[in-house]
Amino acid sequence: MEFLLLGSLAVRRSGTLLELGGPRQRAVLTMLLLHANEAVSVAQLTEAVWDSPPVSPESNLRTYVAGLRKVLGDRLITRPGHGYQLVVEPGELDLDAFDQLVRDGENALADNDTAAAADLFGQALAKWHGIPTAELNAGPLLRAEFTRLQERRLTAVERYARTSIELGRFDDVIDRLRRESALHPLREELWAQLMVALDRSGRRGEALEAYATARRHVVEQVGVEPGARLRQLQQVILESRVPSPAALNAHRQLPMDIAEFTGREAELRRLCEPGPQTTVVISAIEGMAGVGKTKLAVRAAHRLVQRYPDVQLWADLHGFDADELPAEPSAVLEGFLRLLGVPGAQIPESLEERAALYRDRLTGKRALVLLDNAAGEDQVRPLLPGGPGCMVLITSRRTLLQLDGVKSVFLDVFTPGEALALLSRIAGEDRVQADREAAERIAELCGHLPIAVALAAKRLARRPQWTTRDLVAQLERGGGLGVRGVFDLSYQALPDHQRRLFRLLGLHPGEDVTAESAAALAGLTAHEAGDLLETLLDEHLLQQHTPGRYGLHDLLRAYAVEQVTAAEPPPARTLARRRVLDWYVHTSWQSAQRLNPQRKLEIAPPDPSVHPRTFADRDAALLWCDTERANLVAAVREAAEHDLPEHSWSLAQCLWDFFNLRKHWADWIDTHGIALAAARSVGAREAEGRMLITLGIALREVRRHDEAIEHAQQAIAIFRALGDKARQEPALNNLGIAYMAQGRVDDALACYEQSAEIARELGHTHTEAVLLNNIGLLHADAGRFDVALARYLRALEIRQEIKDPYSEAILLNNIGEVHRGLLDFPQAVSYVDRALETFRAIGDLYGQAESLDNLGLALDGLGDRRGAEKCWLESVALFEELGEPKAEEVRGRL
């Protein structure tokens, strides 16, 4: 017999599942299994089964024991005066196997064999397949037993995490620790291990975000600060130096491996066999949709990590996505360069220059690049590394014959044996062997297509009462063979609320979905949506590359779109799309308030059922924008294409600060161009003017100055026609900056003066201070230091009134520069010192580097060469950390 306790309670005899009765009878069996081969008293069983026992529990218990004896036979014996005892033979109970593997792991640790220990702890945890309490009516004693059992499991998780981290297997544990810490948010050791794993894998920001999340849970639920270990870990991470851009900042990007991967051994061997040492190794996995190309590529990539340990990059190129245009190589390179430590401001504009910088950054590195869903050779070619020691894995539905040196691996549907192996792995070997002919028929009805076989197997696994013949009947009743029939079977078998969410996902913008955005889409709470997404993931109708984010396979996305079009009338589809776009607009608005509290954004209120996310601080807001960037760009386009123009321009303006900060120029120009067209399509003149301003700024940033000037002039004309002086003010300021970039000083000064006059008239002190600073810069560049100083000092007065430390620090540094120009070095030192102190207080590294350079120049003017050298050394270090070319200029001073 086989007794399964570590999850849903189950007993098998010769591979056949036994019927165990109702919840209370199952609770009795659970208690007996927890004390296998020991006598369990009536009093213990009573406390295990009932919170409030009946008048005569002995009678009920005799009934339950009699029911179990019909199933278990003489395994269940009566011990007169002692209670009941269940006889379990060695190797029959999964809990015993779990405990033995944990003991073996502890012994391996004692022998300093960390690798063996990690493997043993991993095998122990693989014995678990769910939460034991889910289906039982448990009394207080059984609940206490479950708590004790859960503690044993969590201890094993911590042992597994610690040993895996020691071995450098960070990807193995990060996903598991994220899940466990979410389930057990007050268990600080899980958070600590997660922070260590993230920090050591180069994901310092995520490690600090994990601490912030842990602290929030502890403070909210217990009312105290986290323990000393978590606080010390946070301090260590905070005090560690930010890695130089010459090093790799976020270089482990492979998606999660797939636990249920089956077959493809010959293809795996071919992909993993050593290639030439003098050139880049390029392997292309080719085949039809749903054949398992991505799963094979990910499995191969994880096997190859030890051969290419320095860098692992991944990108979905969307070559065959019905809802997405194929990814532009230039945009993919921008993402890779950022991951390789290149600041956004230093990423070149042209595709050729980006490709050259990318190849340079990978020179001398053993790098693995996984390019999924490639449309063709032209899309892939710029993404290839240049030197030996690198490998590229490509998946595509097309044959990539024109790539030099490519090794093609064609992936066909499963062989019958591979299809049966996957069916066995998911649904159980015993069920497949019980009726092999029916199992083969299931594989045949699925067309041996892996995605279809996996879905069918999952249906069987979740219905223990079904035989393989039952599933065959269901598939044949559905009519037709292949993937569509399996999709129909999986979809139609879902409860109504799960079916509804699945089909609505066909309306979601972008690549993936979270519980929060799905909740908005369906008008649910995030908790409800999260549960449904996990259920759909369990059903193999969703996939997951990173924890908390869910995606649809291309075939399933097309199926979801088909279902939502058929089942939801146009008004319902519009409402769902409006809700999810409301969520993105208003969550982006919340992030913009953190990124730039001074900027006032006016947007329409959201649907009452939508609950936008809020952010504790600026870092959390920035992390969300970084994570959701692809979806946010898609949402702007989605709104414009589906007759929701106000959502398009509202979201675009909310993203302006993020794009500006991260220098995502292509996304900036793309989204604001779409939003501008949307505003023009409905004659929304005020929105058109706002989009002209922000699009003009982006064009200026990429040095398209003539276009930037034209956009600013059009915006000014619109706002003058509308009589809107408040909008003329920023338009004039930005026109002045564009003129200044072209060296048209008089034109720039005229724009600044006009804008400043409007700001004073309207009482916009913040804008007046910005303009006075710009005017001061013009005069300082022209050597008119006295005039510049007067403007700066007036701007400083305003800044001190409105409490904007960042802008105040910039002004203080500028005033220091002017005093240097006037040869008043003591005053220069005084002002720049204050600037440096403020930049340090707000954590602005670039500002610190600039003011340290300026302070060094002032001290040098005073004759303090030692002080100047100290400032410049620190300035060079900071500029290098930021990847800023000015490091060379300051090094020249040294």
From TrEMBL:
The keyword Zinc does not apply. GO terms for molecular function: ADP binding; DNA binding. TPR repeats lie at residues 729-762, 769-802. GO terms for biological process: phosphorelay signal transduction system; regulation of DNA-templated transcription. SUPFAM superfamilies: C-terminal effector domain of the bipartite response regulators, P-loop containing nucleoside triphosphate hydrolases, TPR-like. PROSITE patterns: OMPR_PHOB, TPR. Keywords: DNA-binding, TPR repeat, Transcription, Transcription regulation. Pfam families: BTAD (PF03704), NB-ARC (PF00931), TPR_12 (PF13424), Trans_reg_C (PF00486). Residues 1-88 form the OmpR/PhoB-type domain. The keyword Ion transport does not apply. InterPro entries: AfsR-DnrI-RedD_regulator (IPR051677), BTAD (IPR005158), NB-ARC (IPR002182), OmpR/PhoB-type_DNA-bd (IPR001867), P-loop_NTPase (IPR027417), Sig_transdc_resp-reg_C-effctor (IPR016032), TPR-like_helical_dom_sf (IPR011990), TPR_rpt (IPR019734). Residues 1-88 bind DNA. Belongs to the AfsR/DnrI/RedD regulatory family. This is DNA-binding transcriptional activator of the SARP family. The lineage of its organism: Bacteria, Bacillati, Actinomycetota, Actinomycetes, Pseudonocardiales.
